[in-house]
Amino acid sequence: MRSRSLPAQLILIAALISLACKLSVQPTASPRATRPPAPTQAPQVYNNPDYGVTITYPAGWSTEQNDQAGLRPVGAIIYIVSPGQKIRSVLFYEMLANNETLQDAAAQVRDSVLKDMQGTQILRDEGLALEDGSQAWITILTSTSPNSTDLKISLVTVLYGERLEGLYTFMVFGPPQEYDAQQGAIEAMIASLHVETASLYGVPREQALVQLGGESTNPRNYDPATTPGSGDKMVFSGLVAFDPQLNLVPDLAATWEVKDGVVYTFILRSDARFHDGRPVTSQDVIYSWERAADPTTASDTVLTYLGDIVGVKERQAGKAEAISGLKALDEHTLQVTIDAPKPYFLLKLTYAVAFVLDHANVESGTEWYRTPNGTGPYKLIRWDRFQVMVYERNEDYYLELPAIRYIVIQLYSGVGIRLYEAGEIDITGVSLYNVPRILDPQEPLHADLISGANMCTSYVTFDVSQPPFDDLKVRQAFTMAFDRQKYIDVVLRGASLPADGPFPPGLPGYNADLAGLPYDPERARQLLAESKYDGPEGLPPIVYTSSGFGSEAGSSISAMAQMWQQNLGITITVENLETNLYRDELHAGRHGQLFDTGWCADYPDPENFADALFHSDAQQNLGHYSNPELDDLLEQARVEQDVSHRIRLYQQAEQIIVNDAPVLFTVHSMSYVLVKPYIRGYVLTPIDVPLERYLWIDPSKR
Q1: Looking at 161, 196, 231, which one is the last position of a domain?
Q2: What whole-number distance in Å separates Cα of residue 407 and Cα of residue 697?
Q3: Helix (H, G, I), strand (E, B), or coil: what is residue 574?
Q4: Could you check whether the bond before residue 402 is cis, i.e. omega within 30 degrees of 0?
Q5: How far apart are CA 162 and CA 166, in angstroms?
Q6: What is the mean pLDDT of residues 55-61?
Q7: Is the distance from CB of 275 to CB of 201 less than 8 angstroms?
Q8: Which of 356, 409, 621, 646 is deepest in the core (most CB within 10 A)?
């Protein structure tokens, strides 16, 4: 990795000394607090496998791991204090450049400690062999702190790793007289310092890719049949998948044939197995899809992605016990019949609702998803609620084995960019707040940045079944009273592209010449006056539904509300729904007249936007918009085999959608990701791809 400024990373050591001196000179609270330990007490051992460090410390001494008195600088692992807190010690861990020598690193540590100190006298500065035979560098000195406290300090520096990438600093300090009285105990503690390969939640750190994540309290988010997201593609898999270049590739299916565009015959891999070793069969696919279509599962995605299969709609409506278009010809041969020749059908099977599940696993209990028996490249081996999820490589994976053995997802452990800077995670997204900083070429993290447009479109849905958005002119007025560019510049800090329609840049069918509804406040006021509500005074109370907590609107909604108030004289009320239940509530129809929504491509085809979101019968058409002319165009495009003509049909459909304004299109978002130099193979894909199986760790770049 690139060299970092070690003094800058350890500068807080000096602040620690300054603050700790106040504790070191304080009298003890009571005689019992300083009573020496009984002679029979044995030394104690501190062991932290996450950092690969062990220290034996004297009986009667104690450890601290909290932020008491603000003494928790970056990199501090543990504090060990003597009875009465006269002697304090702290262990630090830091990553450093692989061209550092032990003596150079020790000198930088010493210089960091001595910053702002006075009257320093070096008593010892030399190499040291620890009890385990490893080499360290020890510096012992006396000095006076900025608050005029005399101190004696020992600094022990240890480098660890084949490329010397880990720097451990053990600092012990206190009043000279007290230090000398405890010298034997201090020397024994220093000699006991032992470092080895660090682990993280029981797995070797150097073999793990560490990322930051969150945890939902809604179990539907973890079930492939009901998740509103792209699903856990490390654990589960389907018949086909996308590679990082967005090529459709075989997955559980080794090959397939298509007859007349409607009959698909899939040959499953003979070596495909669930994580428990059971072979995957065609009956497993049928079980998974029929479960997804079962009305009791209440899937909000099954019609969107599997609805082309004959019999799925009947199964989902409760009119059939099975999906008639599925047939197991034998254990490894599956026949799927769809309702018409559709060139995008295979692409839909990459979505989570088409993943293959193990019947026994699903039926094992309501929390089956916490111990999933999947088929994917990784096994979920540990899940500590709101703390961590640990995945281990599936050694029996039927495709090429992932190069990285472990994936660690830290749950709610802090701010991504801060954890990234501290070396605690390897990949992180960049928030809009930090985008200007990371885009600065002078910023050290800039070299780690990977950015680009994704295939996502944000929009606000108008529920056309509720007044006042049952009126086209009201919808158009709200749209034309919204200044996209100002919204991007002020609220999104310039980190997005304006969206005039549903198709994002990069999607086949994207039309740079689309005639969107422009920002025109005067025309917007005129349209509102021409509506059946005769202007703002005739409008009913309007409720805007969003996800979040509390009653305060976020900056995004506040900006839109302010524009509508200034340009149209309209005041809206904002209601926030609990984030984990937000999508469920929208699909249940429990929302205001307009609400936050957005869509990211699941496969690179305009059908995934135009048809999936705006056809009258679309499962994702949450605003109840309907236009027979649009439906006719979309139904033609579904079966059109000529690519050019098909694209033209979707562009015509997009223009109708824009003119009808069933939603207010806001932005096409951008992706900004920081990736450590030693994580190789990372590709910024505009569609969610299970990249973990394609990455590898290059130790020479650490």
Answers
A1: 196
A2: 12
A3: strand
A4: no
A5: 9
A6: 94
A7: no
A8: 356
Same domain, residue pair 397 and 276: yes
Q: What is the 3-state secondary structure (H, E, C) of 88-140?
A: EEEEEEEECCCCCCHHHHHHHHHHHHHCCCEEEEEEEEEEEECCCCCEEEEEE
How many angstroms separate the CA atoms of 503 and 601, rounded? Answer: 9
- 3's CB contacts (< 8 A; 6+ apart) are 96, 97, 99, 100
Q: Last residue of some domain: 379, 394, 409?
A: 409
CA distance 274 to 350: 18
List, in sequence order, the alpha helices (H) in 170-273.
Answer: 176-181, 183-192
The answer to whether the beta carbons of residues 379 and 232 sit under 8 Å apart is no
Gap between the Cα atoms of 233 and 112, Å rounded: 45
- pLDDT for residue 345 is more than 70: yes
Q: Per residue in 129-179, pLDDT tens? A: 999 998 999 999 999 988 889 999 999 999 876 444 578 899 999 999 999
Q: Please tell me the predicted confidence (pLDDT) of residue 549.
A: 57
Residue 19 — pLDDT band, cuts 50, 70, 90? very low
pLDDT in tens, 669-680: 999 999 999 999
Which residue range forms the structural domain that includes residue 555?
Answer: 453-670
Q: Show the tokens assigned to 232.
A: 């856990």
Residues in Cβ contact with 483 at an 8 Å cutoff, skipping those fewer than 6 apart: 519, 563
**216 and 188 co-located in one domain:** no
Select from 269, 219, 209 the least CA-distant residue to 392.
209
Rounded distance, CA 207 to CA 319, Å? 51
* Model confidence pTM above 0.70: yes
- C-alpha distances (whole Å) from 129 to each of 80, 126, 192, 288, 392 are 22, 10, 10, 61, 37
Tokens representing 188 are 């024994």
